[in-house]
Design goal:
The complex is a heterodimer of chains A (307) and B (317). With 307 residues, chain A is mainly alpha-helical. Chain A is built from twelve helices and no strands. Classes of the chains: A mainly alpha (307), B mainly alpha (317).
């Protein structure tokens, strides 16, 4: 039975006798068993997802309140206070990271798909693959080492976190942008050239608009991927209790670091701190899910039908 | 690709023929694209250069100046061991499940819901690692305690389950399982793509010859997807090696070097050690942590490049 190819199997050589033969029930039983095992393995893989969403929702709701979204945590001991500083921090750090990554990523993809040739193109393709594998904490260490060189040891700034996140975000943007640029049909470009349109205008006015929905979707997915990062920010933006919306001065923290910090240093009122950690986790999961769903909707609604 | 090149040249010729202003626009735009490409390469080079320059002092420093009073090699070795151990558990748990999930989606589930099921698996990858960490320590850890006790009692003769079983679940096994959940979607996505591309003539041919569905999967789908699965598993391994927060939160670390997966005394991992110690470190300790980051970078780089090599060879064939 354990033969390697179709031709080797004696049973398969005589198809007519298959179902009637005495060995048939055994093979069908094995088929059933494997089907059940595979389906069971799939179900097993889904258990963490279900449990996780359920637990985060259940444990996150008690900590949610208006204060959670409007107050910061300065001087707060135990209950009360909020995560508004972390929410603002999330928006600023992620926003600056997107401002750095999206232009570089999309121009990089345009290079790969429209201009690139020879060694630079091959190098970029290879190293973007390498970049997707950089551990997030290493990206954080890089940003720290970079800023430390200019601003001295122990430095913590919001923009350092953005630089670290950019290292993680650029390869995601460039990969997805390259995919969607690739499927823009060549006859559109040729038609534009035939009308005497210069290449750059063809890209700006024909290629990019055709790929627009895909580009937006890719950027949203990339943002969803980095918005919940913790490790690189732990070493670059630090931990802080009060509101700070200036990425170039002082510490900042995002919701993920906030959740980690509430878990790690709960102080005397443990349950209150844990509630806040779960509330931050729930907010974060909601943001990530919203971005993912919105990305899918944008793609479905606005994608250009290509014939 | 050659088709693109010819149209490109035709377009450039036309553009060139129609005056200087357009050529200027083209020059500016193509230069910008090249600058973006070079910036990305420079960024990656920067990661390596800055890690080396900031990590270097730790390589040469005397043991007495470094954390724990050890030479750098003695400092990083147990961490590297912990990193590889946790990732190995993750890969061993995740790869079979990921293959099964991919088979289920591509060849067993009704095609109508296959897309949705695939999306559900992908959602696992979207969840931030901090949430996996909290889930691991508050939900999975406590739930695993009786299982750990059972393992100690029944399988304690295997060194892996020697015990004493942890009473909190903050063990290498639990951390490895959480890592497995986190890498499962990556491995599964790559396997799914390969399985879905199995030529129909093979799958239908097998079934026409009377093969059951499992026989069809075993004889056509699995052999066809083999190298993709291998490279997917390695990419997943690379992801697990660098994963930080879940391990930082879940694992109770003592610095012990042991294969005992269910006890309270575990080696830390490189990434978790950085996350735990970096905020409170200064001076040469920072350099030492950055140097461990460099080691981690090197390990993941080798793993990922090996995975890419497998893919490249397969595309070549």
């Amino acid at each position: 039975m354990e033969s390697a190819s179709v031709a080797d199997s004696p049973a398969l050589a005589r198809p007519s006798s298959l179902l009637a033969s005495g060995a048939g029930w055994r093979r069908r039983a094995k088929d059933r068993l494997m089907t059940v095992l595979i389906a069971g393995a799939f179900a097993l893989a889904m258990i963490p997802l279900i449990s996780l969403v359920f637990e985060v929702t259940k444990r996150g709701i008690p900590g949610l309140s208006l204060d959670f979204f409007t107050e910061d945590a300065r001087g707060v001991v135990g209950e009360g206070g909020g995560a508004s500083h972390a929410i603002v921090g999330t928006l600023v750090i992620t926003g600056v990271a997107a401002l750095i990554s999206v232009p570089i990523g999309i121009m990089g993809a345009i290079y790969l798909n429209e201009y690139g040739q020879g060694r630079l193109r091959r190098a970029l393709t290879f190293f973007v693959d390498v970049m997707t594998g950089i551990p997030s904490i290493v990206a954080g260490l890089f940003a720290y080492a970079l800023f430390e060189l200019f601003l001295g040891p122990g430095i913590r700034l919001g923009v350092m976190g953005s630089v670290a996140l950019s290292v993680l975000m650029i390869p995601i943007v460039i990969r997805s942008a390259e995919e969607v640029l690739k499927i823009v049909p060549n006859h559109l470009r040729e038609a534009a050239y035939a009308l005497g349109t210069p290449k750059w205008k063809t890209i700006v006015k024909v290629v990019l608009p055709t790929a627009f929905a895909g580009l937006v979707t890719g950027v949203m997915i990339a943002i969803a991927r980095i918005v919940g990062e913790t490790a690189p920010l732990l070493v670059t933006t630090g931990v802080v209790d009060s509101m700070n919306s200036d990425p170039f001065h002082g510490r900042m923290q995002n919701l993920a670091v906030y959740a980690y910090n509430e878990y790690r240093s709960p102080g005397v009122f443990k349950q209150a701190a844990y509630d806040k950690a779960w509330a931050a986790a729930l907010t974060l999961i909601a943001i990530v899910m919203l971005l993912n769903v919105a990305a899918r909707l944008v793609y479905r609604r606005y994608k250009t039908e290509i014939r | 690709m050659s088709q693109v090149d010819t149209t490109t040249n035709a377009g450039q010729l036309l553009a060139a023929a129609s005056g200087g202003r357009r050529r200027l626009g083209d020059r500016v735009f193509s230069r910008t694209a090249v600058v973006a490409a070079v910036t990305i390469l420079a960024l990656l080079a920067g990661v390596a250069i800055f890690l080396i320059s900031e990590g270097y002092p730790a390589f040469t420093a005397a043991a007495s100046e470094l954390p724990e009073g050890k030479t750098f090699l003695d400092y990083v070795a147990p961490l590297a061991f912990g990193t590889v151990l946790a990732s190995a558990i993750a890969a061993v748990v995740a790869v079979p499940l990921a293959i099964a999930a991919a088979l289920f989606i591509t060849h067993i589930a009704p095609p109508k819901i296959a897309g949705t099921l695939g999306y559900l698996v992908d959602l696992l990858a979207a969840i931030p690692s901090i949430i996996y960490g909290l889930w691991g320590i508050f939900v999975l850890g406590p739930a695993a305690v009786p299982v750990l006790k059972w393992l100690e009692e029944k399988l304690g003769w295997i060194p892996l389950f020697e015990g004493p079983a942890s009473a909190t679940g903050r063990t290498m096994l639990v951390a490895g399982i959480v890592l497995a959940v986190m890498i499962l979607p990556i491995v599964s996505a790559i396997a799914r793509e390969a399985f879905a591309q199995t030529p129909r003539k093979l799958t239908e041919g097998a079934q026409a010859l009377g093969a059951t569905r499992w026989e069809m999967i075993r004889m056509t789908v699995l052999p066809f997807g083999k190298s993709s699965v291998i490279s997917g598993a390695m990419l997943g391994l690379g992801r697990a090696l660098g994963e930080t927060m879940a391990v930082t939160i879940i694992l109770s670390v003592s610095g012990a070097v042991s294969f005992n997966l269910i006890s309270q005394a575990n080696p830390s991992t490189i990434a978790a050690n950085i996350a735990l110690d970096f905020p409170e470190s200064s001076g040469l300790a920072i350099n030492a942590l950055i140097a461990t980051g460099l080691v981690l970078f090197a390990i993941t780089l080798v793993t990922n490049m090996a995975a890419r090599a497998v893919i490249a060879r397969q595309n070549h064939e």
